[in-house]
Amino acid sequence: MKGIGLLKWGIGGLIAYELLNLMKGGSKKVLRPPGAADEDEFMALCIRCGKCNQACPYDSIKMGTEKHGLGMGTPYFIARESPCMLCEDFPCVNACPTDALRGISTVYDVDIGVAVIDTESCIAYQGMRCEVCYRECPLIDEAIKLDIHIKPDDNLHAIFAPVIDKEKCVGCGICEQRCVIDNPIAIKVKPREDSGLF
Hints:
4 iron, 4 sulfur cluster binding, iron-sulfur, Alpha-Beta Plaits, 6 strands, two-stranded antiparallel sheet, electron transport, two-stranded antiparallel ribbon, metal ion binding, alpha+beta
C-alpha cells in the first residue's frame, strides 16, 4: 500500500512538472497578432475561436498546436514564413469577440515585438551592399534606418548598415521574411515579452 501511495505521488509530481513546462512552454516566445493583450491576459481572454485566423487576408495567422502547451488553439504567426502585413483596417483585431486583440487604430499602435539584427550574419555589416530589410520595412526611415559610414579597412567603400529603432519597430516581421540571408537569418523579430537577443 505504501508503494502505491508513493507511485501515485510520483505520477502526480510528474504530471505537475509537465504542466508547468507546458505553461512555460513557449507562448511568450511566439508572435501574436496585432493588438494582443499582455500574454497572461491574452491567454485568459482568448477563447480559441479562430475568427482572427479566418479574417486574415494573407493567411498569416496560425493556430497553436499541442507543442504550444497551454497556448494550443491560440493565434500566432511565423514571420519568416508569413509576416503580419499590417492591414489598413486590421480585420483580425475587428474579428476578435473578446478583446484578446484590441486597441489598434493605426500601424503605430501595433506592438508585436522588435526586430533584432545579427551583425555577424548581416551582409551589409560585412561590407556588401544590401538594403532589403530597410527598403521593405513599412516604416522605412522610422523602424529601420541606415547607418552609412566608410568601411574601416577600406577608404573607397561604404557600409550601409541597417539599424533598428526599438521604439518605432512594431514587430510585423516583414523584414525577417524578406531577408536574403538564410542560415543563420540576419534579422529576426523577437516577441515583446522575450527579452533575449539573437
